[in-house]
Specification:
The complex is a heterodimer.
Chain A lengths: L1 H9 L2 H22 L13 H28 L2 H33 L7 H22 L3 H29 L17 H52 L1
Helix pairs in contact in A: 2-7, 3-4, 3-6, 3-7, 4-5, 4-7, 5-6
Chain B lengths: L2 H19 L2 H19 L4 H29 L6 H7 L4 H31 L7 H26 L5 H12 L1 H16 L3 H29 L3
Helix pairs in contact in B: 1-5, 2-3, 2-5, 3-5, 3-6, 3-8, 5-6, 5-9, 6-7, 6-8, 6-9, 8-9
The chains are: A mainly alpha, B mainly alpha.
Chain lengths: 241, 225
């Protein structure tokens, strides 16, 4: 089912890429040029339009990895395994970028590049888990085991992330309250419009990159399999002579 | 074989192996001694500084020592293909997991109990009143480390670069245990009222339950040929 969905949606990936480009352009224009500077933070606040969507997207991307890993362990669909592998790399990219932009934003506002704040620490730990995931993938010889072990790590990490966040939050807190919340929006429309466009753009970009990378990994495996078959055939014909 | 009998046999097997070879616990003990010495060289501490740092030092040395024990837990099964025997034998794999968790828990806890007097001695701690709560924190945190660590010990033993990968995978996931154990230990050693750090003990309980269940479920996939 998921397999067919992935294959089906691949045809429309151009729309995702185009939509991402459009949303990001509108978001960057409204965020960086059209919106007013913040009363307290001045022009510095504009990095929020990049930082917050990146952070959202990395959590969304990890959710895709988490869900895909459960699905893979359940159905053992190699295409889903490719998707998980692709999702992990892209999640690591978004997490890393969120950390870097957050660090740049922290310098003028908190007057430090790095502080042991809950969300910073949680993201750093998330990045470490993803680095472990990518290392693990390269260290298993058998492809079936590779997918299984990687999925196990992604699931344990996904269960652990909320606990990490709570524990670090109790440990110390400095971050400003989240801008989006279920009790209503705490920021004005001028700031909200670019934020929404940038979020949509980042999500579409994630989907687009995920599709391209999944396809690439899938084709690489196909190629390897064909190469292996071809090599064994020539070997066979030579030994037959 | 019934479930609980399997657990008992696995624990018994690990304990007997350990009693005869004395490999794991002695290497853990020596490593921990060296870690403690290195810490006492690297921070020249008076009593006040020691109070601030000691909880972290205790748990860094316990965690690193624990990782040595956890790594040995499954790498010793590689000899004579014992791992394959575990994989193909008709026993519930969840019982193998729980048995290994219990054995690792016992090894780590015994090392911790042997080491803790040294901490008291070296760093002039005053712990007589809070010994009960301290023991509870040790129990819970060690169980949490053992629950996640046993899963990843079984995982990393079957891949390349296993000695490196166990800490690389385990330590980020063990962040909540570390924080909770350090905070609870610090609260206890400072003589704070129990309500100040009871949330950390609750967090440890929650972590132990969640990860014993999750790892119990996932272990079957890892110990599968």
């Amino acid at each position: 089912m998921i397999n067919r969905f992935i294959r089906y949606i691949q045809r429309y990936k151009g729309w995702f890429g185009g939509g991402a480009a459009l949303c990001l352009l509108i978001g960057l224009y409204t965020g960086l040029l059209a919106s007013p500077p913040d009363y307290y933070q001045g022009e510095v606040v504009r990095i929020m339009y990049v930082h917050v969507p990146l952070a959202h997207t990395s959590l969304l991307a990890y959710s895709v990895l988490f869900g895909g890993s459960i699905w893979y362990l359940w159905k053992r669909d190699p295409l889903v395994d490719n998707m998980c592998q692709a999702a992990a790399t892209i999640t690591a990219m978004f997490t890393g970028l969120a950390l870097v932009t957050g660090s740049i934003w922290a310098k003028p506002t908190w007057n430090t590049w790095w502080t042991w704040d809950p969300r910073l620490v949680s993201f750093a730990v998330l990045l470490l888990i993803l680095a472990g995931y990518m290392m693990l993938r390269r260290l298993v010889d058998d492809p079936d085991r590779e997918g299984k072990y990687a999925a196990v790590l992604a699931i344990v990490g996904g269960v652990d992330l909320p606990i990490i966040k709570f524990s670090v939050e109790w440990w110390r807190t400095l971050h400003q309250p989240m801008s989006f919340s279920t009790r209503g929006v705490s920021i004005s429309d001028d700031l909200l419009v670019p934020l929404l466009f940038m979020s949509a753009g980042c999500w579409l970009l994630f989907a687009y990159m995920l599709m391209i990378r999944t396809q690439m990994l899938y084709l690489t495996e196909l190629l390897q399999a064909k190469k292996g078959r071809l090599l064994s055939q020539t070997h066979f014909s030579q030994s037959a002579q | 074989m019934p479930f609980f009998k399997t657990i008992r046999w696995i624990v018994w097997k690990d304990l007997v192996c350990e009693l005869r070879s004395r490999e794991t616990i002695s290497s853990m003990l020596f490593f921990a001694l060296i870690v403690i010495l290195v810490f006492s060289f690297s921070f020249s501490m008076d009593q006040d500084a020691a109070r601030q740092l000691i909880a972290g030092i205790i748990w860094v040395s316990f965690t690193f020592t624990g990782i040595i024990g956890l790594g040995k837990s499954f790498s010793s099964e590689l000899q004579n293909d014992c791992l394959e025997a575990l994989q193909i034998s008709p026993i519930p794999k969840g019982a193998v997991y729980l048995g290994k968790v219990l054995a690792n828990f016992l090894f780590m806890l015994s090392v911790e109990i042997l080491l803790f007097p040294l901490f008291i001695l070296f760093f002039n701690l005053d712990v007589v009143e809070e010994l009960g709560i301290l023991l509870l924190v040790f129990l819970l945190a060690t169980l949490g480390l053992s629950a996640v660590g046993t899963l990843f010990s079984a995982l990393t033993v079957q891949i390349r670069a296993r000695e490196v990968m166990l800490p690389v995978l385990l330590l980020p996931l063990a962040v909540p245990v570390m924080i909770a154990a350090v905070e609870a230990t610090r609260g206890t050693l400072n003589g704070d009222p129990y309500a100040f750090y009871s949330q950390w003990i609750q967090l440890l309980v929650v972590f132990d339950i969640i990860f014993t269940v999750v790892s119990f479920w996932l272990f079957e996939l890892i110990l599968d040929s």
